[in-house]
Give the backbone structure.
Amino acid sequence: MSEDFKYELAKELGVYDVVKSEGWGSVSSRQCGNLVTAAIRYAEKLYEQQNNGMH
């Protein structure tokens, strides 16, 4: 996962300010889990779009 993508997800989930001021280590475990879940959803959506375009 690129750094830019991680920051974009952090912005969407409202933890960007924490990351920017204190680093990734200050993000709660729950919020990290939410970041991973969001990344998985994005990847699944992208995968579906690519596969639907092939048919």
